[in-house]
Design brief:
255 residues; 7 strands; alpha/beta; seven-stranded parallel sheet; Rossmann fold; single chain
Length: 255
Amino acid sequence: MTHAAPVFSLAGETALITGGGTGIGLGIAEAFVAAGAKVVLAGRREHPLREAADRLGPNASYTVLDVADYNNLDGPVAGIQATHGFIGILVNNAGNSLKKDTVDTTEAEFLSIMDTHVTGAFALTRRLIPAMKERGHGNILFMASMASLMGLPRVIAYTAAKSAHVGMVRSLASELSGDGIRVNAIAPGWIESAMTRRAFDNDPERKARVLARTPMRRMGEPADIGAAAVYLCSPAAKFVTGVLLPVDGGASIGF
């Protein structure tokens, strides 16, 4: 009987993970390294990136990169490719958030969310596609959200951005899958992190509501998203493209 593990291997792959120094991005990086990949962590703040790369070991490195500065990505992307070779996996995970009533959300604030999640992800993606096409191989993964699936109040910009990710995945998958490039998304549920702990510590009623509508009655861990990301970027998912995979303890179908 053939052992199943090799189909989940990422050996020989190099992955670029935006927002890779903390939270879900770091959880994905840990899972990728465990699956045999090399990872390049990208983000705006060097300190957490350096700490994360040191923690991950010799198969991890980092680069300071702001995807929202999308007019100036050519040089950094060329530098990444020159240093690390072919980037076969791109994880568009970088993000920011804003919680405000819609009427109090300014156009500038709205655009700042869209610039990072949507335009920045698009700008980085299109710069990595040519090399993937040339190799006939690539995986592009977007981090969507529960906001891609359900109405959440007071996060109009974030919801618009994460909903846009779903459309981008479908369009890119339709365009690129014939070139050997698969494009998918994960919609994390409520995941344990420093950010969610701060939010729930200040709003215990919200935490109670979240857990009440999650059939598994608990929050997830970054490793849960990492395992799903390994699957979607591995040979195990070689016939999977254009999907949005909720990893949410059932929250998207709970009541």
